[in-house]
Amino acid sequence: MSHLPLNLAPSDASPGWMNKGDNAWQLTAATLVGIQSVPGLVILYGSIVKKKWAVNSAFMALYAFAAVLVCWVGWGYQLSFGTKQLVPFLGMPNVALNAKYLTGPAFTGMLPNATMVFFQFVFAAITLILIAGALLGRMNFVAWMIFVPLWMTFSYTVGAYSIWSLGGWLSTRGIIDYSGGYVIHLSSGVAGFTAAYWVGPRATKDRERFPPNNILLMLAGAGLLWMGWSGFNGGDPYAASTDASLAVLNTHVCAATSLLTWLMLDILFFKKPSVIGATQGMITGLVCITPAAGVVQGWAAITMGLLSGSIPWYTMMVLHKKISFLTKVDDTMAVFHTHAVAGSLGGLLAGFFADPTLNRMFYNIDPLKSDSWKKYIGLAYGIQNGRSSAGFRQMGVQLLGIVFVVCLNLVVTSIICLLIGLVVPLRLSDQELEYGDEAIHGEEAYAVWGDGEKFEKSRQVAQEEINTKRRAKV
Fold first, then answer.
1. pTM (predicted TM-score)
2. Membrane-spanning regions, if any (predicted)?
């Protein structure tokens, strides 16, 4: 018995323009990226914080994943990748749920729009979840519920359209952002740090001591994040191609090199092989290679790993303590260093190491076009081939992208936080900060021996204290 709708012929379900292999890989890559968030970052966030914040931290990630999807198909995708331009940095808003549209060819011509909508959604979702990392342990959950759709609508879509859409103003200038060093990591790092400034710090005792409640589980989440990056970078050629294979290998080589570099620095300076430190090094390596994954040689990926394991280490472990403004902003997961610093570093290194041959392959550049020589050539190759002006131009475009993304997220994130603060408190109350999950959600992460009874008693005590203080204010 046929499962096709009555108005569709068998050929309509598998049209001649669709490449089945590419479509299968693209759906697989999208699922791998989704797994990075759910369960990857859900597990990582829930285990790297104090026990009393485990549920809240994990749920911030889970909520963001669901909320972004609804907004994405409602208007976000068309704002980010719509063929009709509203302004040079934004597409025309529209709903991406029409079956006729979703079964038609995407802008690549080889995949249906439904595949592209889902693939781009998981990138938008993980960006919001990364922002949450800077806000764990004190942001009002209702404020977070409002923040997610607003930031996705007014910040993420602008960056995505400007850098990734075919008509975006930075895209037409030839910026190299293979898979989101700018759109995702630099954006989330700056936005997270900015939002952390407006929300305020954690409770003093939490900031002074914030041990993970389960390091082994944290490693499981980190492992899902690492392996999921095969889809993160391997899916961006939009094809099961040799470029995808190169991107995947470069990704893992850079991550491993960065992890080992960070580990060696921890041992050298702090005499301890920190597990959390190694995880941070893994993340900075993955972030750094992202804007360059499929357009650099393997030796460049190793070099980028050495730099991503050392420069963010220095900014986090040394420079952070010397700059008073950085110490005042409570960035729980250090997303400023692991994503903003590492993302900027990767963007600049992409502009330096990008191989023009690989660029032509990825960007489908026609070498016969009169202006093709001006774009997509790393400075190192420009100097080597006597085209240094083109190489310096590329570095200038990469730097312009950093300035744009930083300014965009500083301004938009600040406005969103200030507006939300007029409606609901950005920060949890003192009582909720003291009791964490029990006061906020009425739930706790672990129910080991005796905790059930303790939980019910402490929940009642917490609620009675809150009620007493409310009555006293009245």
1. 0.90
2. 24-46, 53-75, 117-136, 141-162, 182-200, 212-229, 249-270, 282-314, 334-354, 397-424
Q: Are 290 and 184 in contact (CB under 8 A)?
A: yes
Classify residue 109 as exposed, middle or buried by CB count within 10 Å of its CB (0-12, 13-18, 19+). Answer: exposed
- For the chain, percent helix, then strand, then coil, each to nearest 5? 70, 0, 25
Residue 41: both structure tokens together = 């970052």
Crossing angle for the helix pair 388-421 and 141-151, nearest 10 degrees?
Answer: 140
Residues 195/413, Cβ–Cβ less than 8 Å: yes
CA distance 473 to 371: 69
Q: What angle do CA 434, 450, 445 make, to 5 degrees?
A: 50
CB 132 within 8 A of CB 61: yes
Spatial separation of the C-alpha atoms in residues 118 and 56, rounded to whole Å = 26
Yes or no: say if 195 and 419 are a contact pair by the CB < 8 Å rule. Answer: no
Neighbours of 278 (CB within 10 A): 19
Q: Which residue has the tokens 């909508």?
A: 117
- Per-residue confidence (pLDDT) for residue 342, from 0 to 100: 98
DSSP label of 4 = S
Instruction: Please tell me what DSSP assigns to residue 66.
Output: H
- Identify the bridge partners of residue 90 per DSSP, sorted by sequence position: 87
Q: Is 105 helix (H, G, I), strand (E, B) or coil?
A: strand
Of the candidates 48, 51, 52, the one whose C-alpha atom is nearest the C-alpha of residue 276 is 48
Distance CA 269, CA 470 (A): 50
The residue whose two tokens read 């879509």 is 157
pLDDT, mean over the chain: 90
Q: Tell me the per-residue pLDDT of 415-436, one tens digit each, with 9 for 90 and over.
A: 999 999 999 999 999 999 999 9
The two beta strands, 90-91 and 85-87, are: antiparallel
